[in-house]
Design goal:
- The chain is an alpha+beta fold and about 425 residues long.
- The chain is built from 11 helices and 21 strands.
Length: about 425
């Protein structure tokens, strides 16, 4: 093999697709431990196409989310994948939130987000008649999509370009050698020139197999959703979000009308008791101990313990969850809320207890790791693929393979770049 990609989530598939687009004939395989693609974070999310207004200007998240969102919309137009740019309002309900709302507006403008508008209560009521607030930020370019459908399309592209997707193969060991990397899987050994890992919830453990540090450590946080009763779905037209709370490291509960028409309410954010702990009481003792004994988690818990207890209480108390939602849509009742799905966020955490806010991608001349790729990684996937392909071209010297890929001829003109946004562009 020339390249092995670990992980058939949306990032791994986007990376594989981009490498094959730039270097046709590349011998590439995607290795996935589950029996299907998009089994975890890529298939357990609310399906939002983010506009890029939350992220620090100049960060990878800011650059790749804005570029990736535009590329994703173009891709969906070209491949007939349904999406809707339904818009989003970020609602301030208290005067203390107004400076933070203004900062979001500033960030969005600095990041090149199109169409942002600060609105008052009257305009808010026009957009979301059931919502209340003293001011809001309207983002018309925020949208919704089915990311599993996007993953299927990326996978079809990988196959059409000659790549393999090998499901049902967990990675048991990775052994870098002088001229190759040996990847031992549950279904046999693969030898490859280069390795790119996009392992999501297990990204730190997979990186450690290559001799890389485990830090930043992945700590899993579960988010539970309620679904709005279908006959009450007219309470929400698009998306209603809170102003981020600096006393809590996650976004807070919000309202999302999904592409199929249902409305999801949430999520909360609590420590998951397993890396794939999608249910409240599912416990993997060794993984839970790994989280609870990590110095970084202890520091985080010490800083946010009050908020964390509140989140855990709300996780088990439907009335408490409802009260958080009623701050934005007062007409909601407890009967309107139906138990919904859940997801687990692979959050990288440093030893000093800080959530790693930006995407983290590192590596060397043979191995590259995607260490932290939470939201908005799905929105950013095509741009992340282009960014990693740029780095791979430089670090892996993939152009040295061209004589073998294109014997007796120059590389096709289309391989000098990518149709998707480059991180260097």
């Amino acid at each position: 093999m020339d390249v092995v990609v670990v992980g058939a989530g949306i990032v791994g598939l986007a990376v594989a697709r981009e490498l094959l687009r730039r270097w046709p004939g590349l011998q590439l395989a995607v290795v996935e431990k589950e029996d299907r693609i998009a089994a975890h974070q890529s298939g357990h999310n609310s399906g939002v196409i983010h506009s890029g207004l939350y992220y620090a200007p100049g960060s990878l998240k800011a650059k790749l989310c804005v570029a990736g969102g535009r590329a994703l919309v173009r891709y969906c137009d070209e491949h007939d994948i349904p999406y809707a740019l339904s818009g989003k309002v970020i609602v301030a309900t208290d005067p203390a939130e107004l400076p933070r709302l203004d900062e979001l507006h500033r960030r969005g403008q600095a990041n090149g987000v199109e169409g942002l508008e600060v609105i008052g209560p009257e305009r808010l009521r026009e957009i979301e008649p059931s919502a209340v607030g003293i001011r809001a930020l309207y983002s018309p370019r925020t949208g919704v999509i089915d990311y599993v459908a996007v993953c299927r399309s990326y996978a079809a592209d990988v196959a059409a370009l000659g790549g393999e997707i090998l499901t049902g193969r967990s990675v048991d060991a990775i052994i870098p050698r002088d001229a190759k990397v040996v990847v031992a899987t549950s279904e046999g050994v693969l030898e490859t020139r280069y390795l790119i890992t996009c392992a999501g919830l297990y990204s730190d453990q997979i990186a450690a197999m290559t001799g890389s540090p485990r830090d930043p450590r992945i700590v899993p946080f579960r988010g539970d959703y309620y679904i709005l009763r279908p006959e009450r779905a007219d309470l929400v037209r698009s998306m209603i979000y809170p102003v981020p709370d600096p006393s809590f490291p996650f976004l807070g509960v919000h309202f999302t009308r999904r592409i199929e028409g249902g409305v999801w309410l949430g999520p909360n954010a609590v420590l998951a008791f397993a890396r794939e702990g999608y249910h409240r009481l599912f416990i993997h003792p060794r993984e839970l101990l790994d989280s609870l004994s990590y110095r970084g988690f202890l520091a985080l818990a010490g800083k946010y313990w009050r908020t964390g207890i509140g989140e855990m209480y709300r996780d088990f108390s439907k009335p408490a969850f409802l009260r958080a939602l009623q701050r934005y849509v007062p007409d909601l009742t407890e009967d309107d809320l139906i138990e919904g799905p859940s997801g687990v966020r692979a959050q990288a955490l440093s030893r000093d207890g800080k959530l790693v806010d930006d995407f983290v991608i590192d590596g060397d001349a043979r191995v590259m790791h995607v260490r932290n790729a939470p939201s908005p990684a799905a929105t950013s996937s095509l741009a992340i693929g282009a960014y990693i392909a740029d780095r791979a071209a430089e670090s892996f010297h993939l152009d040295e393979l061209r004589p073998r890929l294109y014997p007796g001829a120059e590389a096709p003109a289309s391989q000098s770049g990518s149709a998707e946004p480059s991180a260097n562009g």
